[in-house]
Design a protein that fits this description.
about 170 residues, mainly alpha
Length: about 170
């Protein structure tokens, strides 16, 4: 998700020549990389209880093939929905990057609330199981929500477009 956002941000032309927007994009890439690593580290921290106590890891043997399928789906979606329909020519770099960070921030806040506050209040539940289930369910619902509201986010960035000057 972050990798595709960085590719979309770097290739966003914003109706301008590529070299006119390269310096701001490099700054966004640097600070976006730092923020992306921080978000991933926080997500792992909040969901670490999944791996505690009696965790059965026998299902992880098929994980590399599942990850490869997810990566292939993201690359295919990037090619078809971003490059083949020429959306990259008019896309705003900041809008491409910020919409993903807002998505991840909402997901992180909900995961934190569930795994750090709500689930521990019920010690009779299997903490690892419910942390894993809540993470998957939250990801599904946040993805569904953002599939409906991502375009309005991008429209806000298009209306408040910053002109790059070289």
């Amino acid at each position: 998700m972050l990798g595709a956002a960085f590719v979309r941000m770097l290739c966003a032309m914003d109706n301008q020549p590529f070299l006119n927007t390269i310096l701001p994009k490099m700054g966004m890439l640097f600070f976006g990389g730092i923020m992306g690593v921080a978000l991933i580290m926080l997500t792992v921290t909040f969901t670490f209880k999944v791996f505690e106590g009696g965790f059965n890891s026998s299902g992880f043997d098929k994980l590399p093939s599942r990850i490869n399928m997810l990566i292939a789906g993201n690359i295919l979606g990037l090619i078809v929905h971003y490059f083949m329909n020429s959306r990259y020519k008019t896309a705003n770099a900041m809008g491409e990057l910020m919409s993903v960070f807002i998505h991840l921030l909402v997901l992180l806040a909900l995961i934190m609330a569930l795994t750090m506050h709500l689930i521990p209040k019920y010690p009779q539940l299997n903490q690892a199981l419910w942390a894993g289930v809540s993470t998957v369910v939250l990801k599904f619902f946040v993805d569904m929500l953002f599939s409906k509201i991502r375009e309005p986010f991008k429209e806000v960035f298009e209306k408040n477009k910053v002109e790059w000057h070289s």
